[in-house]
Amino acid sequence: MEIVLYQPEIAGNVGAIIRLAANSGISLNLIKPFGFDLQENKIRRAGLDYHDLSNTKTYNSWEEFIETNNNKSICCLSSKGIDSYWDTNLNQFDFLLFGPESIGLPDVIISNYKTITIPMKENSRSINLANSVGIVVFESLRQASVQ
After folding, report:
1. Domains of the chain: residue spans and CATH
2. What pLDDT digit, counting tens, does each position of 22-46 carry?
């Protein structure tokens, strides 16, 4: 299972996720356009010196990502999902896809894939992207350890 960030907007979140990817051994895929420059100080500071330790791939577009990974299974994470991440075998998917911080994944993508959610208090809007990825990555690792 690998993490995919679709058009992430906040450098600090991506830096934190790069660090998480390096420490968990889970590959990270980044789909452009980004709301920041990958060389930005904020991403380097959040990722510390983990950039070289993570397996991170970058794609120029959603179309390039899909073309490169056309036989792989994808699960979307969204506040629009109904099924909970903890009721889903996360490791059955090749990719867990997260959307941009301000708007989430577009409906055109969500409509084509299984979409799950992290349960939240009613009337809550969303959980920070880096926190969401951390929650789901460690549930995936937990699930893998008990199988």
Report:
1. 2-146 (3.40.1280.10)
2. 889 999 999 999 887 766 565 555 4
